UniProtKB/TrEMBL annotation:
It is a peripheral membrane protein. PANTHER family: MEMBRANE PROTEIN INSERTION EFFICIENCY FACTOR-RELATED (PTHR33383). Pfam families: YidD. This is Putative membrane protein insertion efficiency factor. It comes from Aurantimonas manganoxydans (strain ATCC BAA-1229 / DSM 21871 / SI85-9A1). It is found in: Cell membrane. SMART domains: Haemolytic. Could be involved in insertion of integral membrane proteins into the membrane. It comes from the Bacteria. HAMAP family: UPF0161_YidD.
């Protein structure tokens, strides 16, 4: 088993220009702004690692929207804990309806017994 070159997703992904652009922007953020802002993410993996993996797995459009919604969940009144990128997008997902991705990654709400 090989050693990963970095903390980002190293699994298989389709190489497209959009993915390269998205991954480049996330990596640029990780190398420049992230050290200045500090590590304050309440989720695991961090928001930038999540964005990198989401764009690599699902492309620039869907992965970008997943990343935006994840950053929105990371605010002071948001969620915390382990929030992995979904392996596959739900069948009801359409490119023109990114709001359907909003519920992915949210923890299940428990009803009191």
């Amino acid at each position: 088993m090989g050693i990963a070159a970095g903390r980002n997703y190293s699994g298989p992904w389709r190489a497209t220009p959009g993915r390269y652009l998205g991954l480049g922007l996330v990596r640029l953020y990780q190398l420049t702004l992230s050290p200045l802002i500090g590590s304050h993410c309440r989720h695991l993996p961090t928001c930038s690692e999540y964005a990198y993996e989401a764009v690599a797995r699902h492309g620039l459009w869907s992965g970008g929207w997943l990343s935006v919604f994840r950053v929105g969940r990371c605010g002071p009144f948001g969620t915390s804990g382990i929030d992995n990128v979904p392996e596959a997008l739900p069948a009801r997902h359409r490119w023109w309806a990114p709001w359907r991705l909003l519920r992915l990654g949210r923890p299940a709400v428990r009803t009191p017994e």
